[in-house]
Amino acid sequence: MPASADNFPGRELDEISDAIDDVNKMKGKLWDAKSEFDAHKDKSKFRDYDSACDRVKAFYKEQHEKQTVAFNIQARVDFKTKRRARMSVWEAMEMLNTLIDESDPDTNLSQIEHLLQTAEAIRRDGKPEWMQVTGLVHDLGKLLLLFGSEGQWDVVGDTFVVGCKFSDKNIYPETFAGNPDSYDSVYSTEYGIYKPHCGLDNVMLSWGHDEYLYNVFKDQSTLPAEALAMIRYHSFYPWHRENAYQHLCNEKDAAVLAAVQAFNPYDLYSKSDEPCDPEKLRPYYEGLIAKYFPPVLDW
Asked: Organism's domain of life (predicted)?
């Protein structure tokens, strides 16, 4: 019997081929696929600290002078012994609506706009929902500024390792001369209080919004390990951009680095995008938030 249009072998072949094409398209949208939204952006205009205003330079001088080992130990004790608020993720975003980051030379937008710009850039590139929501929440640790921080210097800015010699790959490295740890007999050495290749899990980064938010979310979300790495290390530019602190890293940190570098373009280069409409986007993102967070969190 001659083959009909419905059972012709070529139709089955076409269906299989289409299915393979669909899978190939999906592969291009994995979390670690190269970002596409920033392909035509002039990236030389970002992180231009040589041309930064005096506000940014003054911020980093203060941060580098005050982020000592003693301060960082006390900050972690305070985190574990205080509960600052109970609220939803979206309520936390709204609290940031009037905050401007003094360490950032690339934007003067409020934080809720930056969060939505980051999430929307990830969404446009077709990345997974967990990565979209990570973009949405990654800077919520800046709530510390509203929870009794000592200033912006212990909340924002690039992070770096404390407890060993400050890397010359940090922004404005000369300003660490005002930090007493620079002259400590242990803290000023290459390894300081650490062992070679001990891994980033075992070093103390300067306290701020990254470390704070990581500790809030690690036990109060279902975000994957890659998302938590993006949150914890996204401001650790001396490491993920300048290749510093390799003498402290181990094999696990290679996988962590891949996650942070996949996230970084969305955090950095989305800052030049058009502002977003929070109320228009709210229903979509509240749906994502509900998938990964409880209705109310301890902050």
From this structure: Eukaryota
| Contact indicator for 269, 41 with CB cutoff of 8 Å | yes
What is the tens place of the pLDDT at every residue in 220-277?
999 999 999 999 999 999 999 999 999 999 999 998 999 999 999 898 766 555 778 8
d(CA 154, CA 110): 19
**Alpha-carbon span 257 to 234, nearest angstrom:** 10
Residue of 185, 147, 143, 138 lying closest to 164 (CA atoms) = 185
Q: What is the H or E stretch that residue 161 is in?
A: strand 161-162
Global pTM reads 0.81
Provide the H-helix boundaries in 1-84: 9-27, 54-66, 69-81
User: Tokens in use for 258?
Assistant: 């891949």
Name the phi and psi angles at 162, rounded to 5.
-110, 150
Question: What whole-number distance in Å separates Cα of residue 154 and Cα of residue 63?
Answer: 7
